[in-house]
User: Fold this.
Amino acid sequence: MANMANGKSLMQRLVDAGLTSKQMDHHYSDLYVPKTAVTKRVIEEWCAENGYRFDHFVKPFKSNFDGSPWYDVAFQYDPAFQETI
Assistant:
């Protein structure tokens, strides 16, 4: 499900923008990233290039650990689609 306009998944774009895998998390196939100006810009660009509405694919939430703001991006955790059943 991870769309790759311009040949890169959203996860890869976020890594290219400076996020590390330790700064990301997931729940099944949903990707969790900290809510920052950089992550918002990258996700908005990805949505626009793929014809998605930000509010349909991205839900903000607060971390249960420290209350920090995060984004939950539906179906964008790449390794979930690389695993075999």
Remarks:
- The chain has a mean pLDDT of 91.
